[in-house]
Write a structure and sequence with these properties.
5-stranded mixed beta sheet, alpha/beta, globular, single chain, Deoxyribonuclease I, Chain A, 209 residues
Length: 209
């Protein structure tokens, strides 16, 4: 399965030829952007992706509550605005990796009972931030791309037969319910088509901005 999620500016949660389920709630402050359940070993692999707009105590409690209610396996955080590793804690989860930024920044958590491998992460100077892990052969990339920069799609990993790429890409495209497309929207749409990736989106869901 190949997948790519286009949070925030792009409504949807992508997938390809495996069955999956996703739900989305979008608003202007922190937006729950996607939840995907994938069969992985003996239990479903449930991924929660959320832009928290600051990793505060209140946001951590909110994420913790959602992990319990949804029985989440992997948590992908964008815009944590946090550089200190000791502040990135989630009960019952291991911090797989994080990009320390006072502005933006991402973090990936994996349930402590689940084995995973850290594949790699973006360099400090790259505008597009990403962390990639694998669980039972499924490649999962957490991505955040800030709006002003041009999206470098070559940084996005799609080299696995089974991959899912949730993130906040800040991309606009008419196919995703926007009245107009922007440059990054065209780049992301062309890249996903070239790599045989399929985006799930609901045109009935309002865009965030």
């Amino acid at each position: 399965m190949h997948s790519i999620d286009t949070n925030g500016q792009t409504p949807g949660f992508p997938t390809s030829n495996d069955s999956s389920a996703a739900s989305r709630t979008q608003n202007h402050s922190p937006s729950l952007s996607g939840r995907e359940a994938i069969a992985s070993g003996d239990e479903p692999l449930v991924i929660l992706q959320i832009n928290v707009e600051g990793w505060t105590a209140a946001q951590r409690e909110l994420v913790q509550k959602m992990t319990r209610e949804m029985k989440v396996t992997v948590v992908l955080i964008q815009e944590k605005h946090q550089t200190m590793t000791d502040q990135l804690k989630l009960f019952g989860f291991t911090l797989a990796g994080h990009i320390p930024r006072e502005h933006h920044g991402i973090a990936t958590f994996v349930r402590s009972s689940i084995s995973f491998s850290l594949v790699g992460y973006s360099n400090a100077g790259e505008p597009t931030q990403w962390i990639t892990i694998t669980i039972n052969g499924i490649c999962i990339s957490n991505v955040y791309h800030p709006p002003p920069a041009v999206l470098n799609v070559s940084l996005l990993r799609s080299d696995s037969d089974q991959c899912i790429i949730p993130g906040d890409f800040n991309c606009l495209h008419e196919n995703w319910g926007y009245p107009d497309s922007n440059q990054n929207g065209y780049l992301l749409a062309d890249w996903s088509c070239t790599n045989n990736l399929h985006t799930l989106y609901d045109l009935k869901q309002p865009t965030s901005f």
